[in-house]
TrEMBL record:
<keyword id="KW-1133">Transmembrane helix</keyword>
<feature type="transmembrane region" description="Helical">
    <location>
        <begin position="126"/>
        <end position="149"/>
    </location>
</feature>
<dbReference type="GO" id="GO:0016020">
    <property type="term" value="C:membrane"/>
</dbReference>
<dbReference type="Pfam" id="PF07681">
    <property type="entry name" value="DoxX"/>
</dbReference>
<keyword id="KW-0472">Membrane</keyword>
<dbReference type="InterPro" id="IPR032808">
    <property type="entry name" value="DoxX"/>
</dbReference>
<feature type="transmembrane region" description="Helical">
    <location>
        <begin position="96"/>
        <end position="120"/>
    </location>
</feature>
<keyword id="KW-0812">Transmembrane</keyword>
<protein>
    <submittedName>
        <fullName>DoxX family protein</fullName>
    </submittedName>
</protein>
């Protein structure tokens, strides 16, 4: 039997910290929602619409240009993926990115499947980082990782409190005072 440390239980499972998790979750969700919304409503239609894939193709081409030198920003294995998988399917990836950002953002804002949404947000952040783009990606990746770790309480002030109970996840996370064990 393995006991969960008190500090871990406090940080990642105590509903008394739900307000802090909610602020963090809503901030990350807002960042994703706005990024995706800008892409979907782009009047040039380079993300979704008749010119879908144009923006992604340009981004990927720029990433491929960062593969040279002694210390490349984009590693060879990821460049292979970009060149042979992503670039030939730029239009598909364009829709995936634009709508994925909106879905991750909306789910985080309302607190629905918070851990899953944060995980996919982190995957997108890691993809952008691997493509040599810094921007807000390191911060959002760190925050997404924390949200994944705190999934039990991160959506407590959100829909997760009720929706997860429908899937058999307890509706009441244990408090820091209750001993939690893992078998």
């Amino acid at each position: 039997m393995l006991r969960e440390p008190n500090v871990s239980r406090l940080l990642f499972a105590d509903p008394r910290l739900a307000p802090i998790w909610a602020l963090l979750r809503i901030y990350v969700g807002y960042e994703w929602l706005m990024a995706g919304w800008e892409k979907i409503t782009n009047p040039a239609g380079v993300w979704v619409g008749e010119k879908a894939g144009t923006a992604v193709g340009g981004f990927l081409t720029g990433a491929l240009a960062k593969t040279g030198g002694a210390h490349p920003d984009v590693q060879g294995w990821y460049a292979w993926f970009l060149q042979h998988v992503a670039l030939p399917n730029a239009a598909t990836f364009s829709y995936l990115v634009a709508y994925g950002e909106v879905l991750v953002g909306a789910a985080l804002i309302v607190g629905l499947f918070t851990g899953i949404a944060a995980f996919f947000g982190g995957v997108m952040n890691a993809s952008y980082l691997l493509a040599g783009t810094i921007s807000t990606n390191p911060l959002l990746f760190i925050l997404a990782t924390w949200l994944v770790l705190g999934w039990r309480v991160a959506g407590w002030w959100g829909l997760d409190r009720w929706v997860l109970a429908l899937f058999g996840v307890t509706a009441t996370p244990p408090s820091a005072a209750q001993p939690a064990t893992v078998r």
